[in-house]
Queue: 2 jobs
Job 1
Amino acid sequence: VPDTVWTIVVAAGSGQRFGMPKQYEELGGRRLLDWALEAAKAAGDGVVLVLPAADVPAGDPSTVAGGASRSESVRHGLAAVPGDADIVCVHDAARPFASAALFEAVVDAVRAGADGAVPGVAVTDTVKVVDGTGAVVSTPERSTLRAVQTPQAFRADVLRRAHESGREGTDDAALVEAIGGRVVVVPGDPLNRKITHPDDLAWARAQIASSR
Ligand code: C5P
């Protein structure tokens, strides 16, 4: 029997760094979040969309209200994923250019036995760990670092257990790592950039214009 795959698309952020809720900004003739939704729908058996509470339409069980943090929004999404899902992907609505191949790569790595799989790319900047005063604490060896993206795929039972702790993290893999899960990195895609600042949206629009 093939695994049942569901994807949670988180779009409940307030866009604090962007300056406004960016998920509804126009990109290539549709809303930013529609890109992630379409890729997620093509990648598996179902999708749960997590939106700001005020934007959740009545009577649609596949759209749920987010929480105060990204992790809380994922937890709300997870509660709406059917119990028979074997693999759950979590994807940021803010990443319009995640390919079908990238979804396939993370899901395949979980099918192959990992608890979780995340796309990662080598970092080009040297990264420092700093304290609250800005003083450098350490410099991790750059060759050991990966900047990770979404979609991230997990065994459903492991992701549910990781979230039961109520822990907070900037991605879901961190919560799975914290309960001792084995998370692997698969090759990410430099084009799968997260739209965080207005400059990123300008870049995305230029990508689309140059591919037409
Ligand atoms: O804040 P960050 O850039 O890591 O957000 C990544 C994704 O998480 C975005 O798509 C954002 O809409 C979503 N998010 C959410 N609920 C929050 C905060 C962020 O769904 N409370």
Job 2
Amino acid sequence: VRAYDLIFEKREGGELSDASLRELVAAYTAGELPDYQMAAFLMAVFFRGMEGRELATFTDAMLHSGEVVDLSAVSGRKVDKHSTGGVGDKVSLCLAPIVAACGVPVPMVSGRGLGHTGGTLDKLEAIPGFRVDLGIDRYREIVAEHGLCLIGQTETLAPADRRLYALRDVTATVESIPLIASSILSKKLAEGIDALVLDVKVGRGAFMKTRARAEALATTMVELGTRMGKEVVALLTAMDEPLGRTVGNALETLEAIEILRGAGPSDLQEITFALAAQMLVLGRVAGDLEEGEKRARAAAADGSGLERFRRMVEAQGGDPRCVDDPTVLPQAAHKIPVPAPRAGAVREIDALSVGTSAMKIGAGRATKESVIDPAVGVVLQKKTGDRVEAGETLAVVHANDTTLGEVCAKAVGDAFELGDESPPDPVRVLARITAEDG
Ligand code: URA
């Protein structure tokens, strides 16, 4: 098969055969297909899409471009969660230990932050000594022993995706639903899981700005996962204001530990326990979502989730004292309060603006090469719906550079919309999408 013919066929809206798609992915991964031809193919997919069978074959070819981890030696159904990314989304850090404490193993290969969104690996690396670059053998051992392990992408897991993603990044082909779905699922299925819960974020601070786009992505991923023999459920969750009260790596890790102590902000609790309930049902340790949520809340209240977190930190080389002593984590030199310009109710907090401001003081990456400062970030003292007096502190910026910190404080102040009337109570879990919906 000539690549030219496949590009032509897709450009004209045709459906490609399984053999052609597999050949295309294999040739590109082996370096036998030039970037310009793959780029043209990706653009054709961007405009023409892929039909369900094509997408499953393309994803399967990406999945098998590298190692697929065998976790069959670990008993129980292995279940992971993937978030499409947001601001203040530290859910994986508290969710994985809670689910593991309830008896469902969680093998989790996570990503780093880019732009206004944070990444789980950066948050974990705020813990002194914590290593995310363990090999697959050690990952398998830690999952078997402690029921969870959180590592970064390796060279051997879905290498086709690494090459394709880098090419999409420079050819304006990232925002394609079939390409996003195949990218995410090829990596997640390479971890050795039986089932997956997707947290598809919707709103200003999310990748998907509208409910319709988020629903389309969630439905595509649920159908794709199902075709590939895995149980996949998606929750659509709100990402208009930052999740929880903290944005920034060490600050977010501390907040996740609060959840593991049975405390923490109510929005973060709600999302964590809603996702945990889905995972416990998929892991077959809870009969229904109500039971799943009850068990997850109990694992936070009784300290068993926290104990799993401590064990995971220790197994991955981190300083486990961070669980009891927040001063073990890096702290910023300056704390700059953001005062309310008037009295009233907080109507909105723009997650995109808070995420971008935090990135600019070092909490995130403007480019893949940027260096993170784990200590810096923003703590929101007020959230949507809270009432404030004029001059009361809305947020505190944690900075190591006062000039940058002041600029951030101004931007965070501007991200708050204050009004006279309180807004309606926010809906945080917007929808649940399962294979039966399709
Ligand atoms: N995250 C991924 O892993 N892949 C995409 O294509 C987009 C977001």
